[in-house]
């Protein structure tokens, strides 16, 4: 096999079963490590199962809703659902917690996380192709569906948490995007541009290099605790260019304070609340 | 008519108009007895009407959403909607409250509740048939849609309450299933098994015996105030077998503490909050 | 052109681009004037953009959901979305805030608001025609979809606020209808009656007079600060006739108090909360 053909062969990789399995394991582990998840798993195994399914198949649910298809359509693929359910059972209820302890071993954890990122590329391109079959060349819908399919679990996190009895209206993935959601949006834009032939690169090459980027940044961020998003400098420049006309530096600081106070819990003690209200009023005055 | 033919004739019973009417009456009475519902009915008759419709047609709304059909499709059946609206009007705004007082008379109440349970069987089987017409032999979707159609009002209760300005994220029917939702899930599984011919029983026989079980348990639970769910022993055994491997008592306690703090209401006053936490802890201990 | 032909010509008016543009400007200005919106626009431009799109295309999103069509279908119309995005950019990020200051000039503001009301008529009739193409002569669905298309931004306001991290479950447009939502409901009923030929008036005449009514009341309400809804007397009579049988005047007063307390913020200080709970309990006693 020549070196130049690696991307082409890579783009023909089958996701089922190994990569899908890794995605389910990484998703279930991610859920298990959220606060209160273990308790929910004993209180109500059904809520825990639904929550896990939303983590594993959230992209499918969200993109189906967007294209007016059955949001429970993923259940028709019994093999994948049973696989994900098996993973759910092993992660939460395995005797002696053997399964979870195994995958807490860093090298194994890194491998699973890396493989999960590979499935992301496939999901984005799948979503874009699917959207294109519904709406011919509607590039905004392609971006939206590709994004939703690739980052579904994150985008619906508010409603996934609601299943577990948790409601955090003050934060969502649009207000404060996490890195995976951000990188999926960038990917959805790139693959849509490639699809509409605005980007002079072959599809399999883009898939190859985007996946490499995903895996490398993911692994790096897991290994370095205080990692900075690779988008931070671009965001700063772009934000300054597009949205930052009227930001004097002093203003910026008070805004940072504001954002931190507004993402705090919804039921602060009255005193905190008044402070933040006061801050908001001042902020409005300054901006005006 | 022979005795052996009773189930067959029973399975041909028409739900419209008598049984449907009983379902609407029982649903509207159930809503009226919820805290704050009478005030809402005077503040905003429209919110009260929408809420009543969600109680009466919730199963239809939820199963339509699941199968990517119009969630307001039930409105196309004007006769049923007008019947339900008439019931809504009589339950909430009848002069001297005659209607509500009539149906507070226990024997009448029992009859209506029993008839409502009969419609449940019809809804579950209807949902399963409907799901099967969309996804051939996808048994997970059949169970999901049968369950949603039969117990829709319960499953969407969080959003039904939102219409009335009430939001209780800390509780939902997946986290803490009520008896009707639980028995509908069991029914949906049984009828799906029957549909895929894994259960050696004729459909009309299963309908007959399942309905008898529904009506008898419902009436029993209404007559005995501190009734225990007939599923409690099975659940205990099943929970112990499947999910209970690693529960040392010491672990449980710390877990109970954690769970109560995370599932408590988002805006309780501090005192209520502590009380309910205490209650939950006691509850958890009892279950153990 | 004769005077009698004015309504006919009026009914053939094209909404694109001028009236659509006015709708986007009025919607974006409305959003910008909500508390906290300016801060969100700097914290997260994407959340602000999504929120603005929900304000501009909320009717389309909601009516698509109701008829089981793609809720993101409006994105396929790239021209309109780009136009709305341009307006969003100018309203929130224009250097020196020139755009916002221009449209704060009252005569310009009135013109834009008036033109927005014109689009409402077109949306209602569009929604009714659309619903009729799905469900032949289902008048309840026609009213519902016409209403949703015309007043979508208002009806989904709870979820639009959620995008901005705000959650006010205690108030929604069904519990306490704003004037635009109310007048759209009346319009949807009138146009449905006209569609089913129960109303002896030509379609273009109804469109003409309904739009005049919309624009005149809107402009009047913007000019007179303490304006009373023109429906208030009808509502009082209708409410008394249909829903007010058992209301002694004393009861009414406590109810008014109640409603005002129930629409207060979701995170009241404990003392307010207890008072309102107490009031509710007393209320329940009185009603029973």
Tell me the count of domains of chain A: 2
How many strand segments of chain A?
0
What is the string of helix and strand elements of chain A?
A: HHHHHHHHHHHHHH
Average pLDDT number of chain A: 85
Instruction: Name the assembly state.
Output: homotrimer
Quick summary:
Chains A, B, C: It is found in: Endoplasmic reticulum membrane. The structure is a homotrimer of 288-residue chains. Chain A contains 14 helices and no strands.
Could you describe the 3D structure shown?
The structure is a homotrimer of 288-residue chains. With 288 residues, chain A is an all-alpha fold. Chain A has two domains: 14-236, no CATH class; 246-262 and 271-288, no CATH class. Helix content of chain A is 72%, strand content 0%. Chain A contains 14 helices and no strands. The first copy, chain A, has helices spanning 6-10, 18-32, 37-43, 45-66, 78-93, 98-104, 106-134, 139-155, 157-163, 179-195, 203-223, 232-243, 249-262, 270-287. Mean pLDDT of chain A is 85; it is low at 245-288. Chains in contact: A-B, A-C, B-C. At the B-C interface, helix 3, helix 4 and helix 5 of B face helix 8, helix 12, helix 13 and helix 14 of C. Chains A, B, C: It is found in: Endoplasmic reticulum membrane. Chains A, B, C: InterPro entries: TRIC_channel.
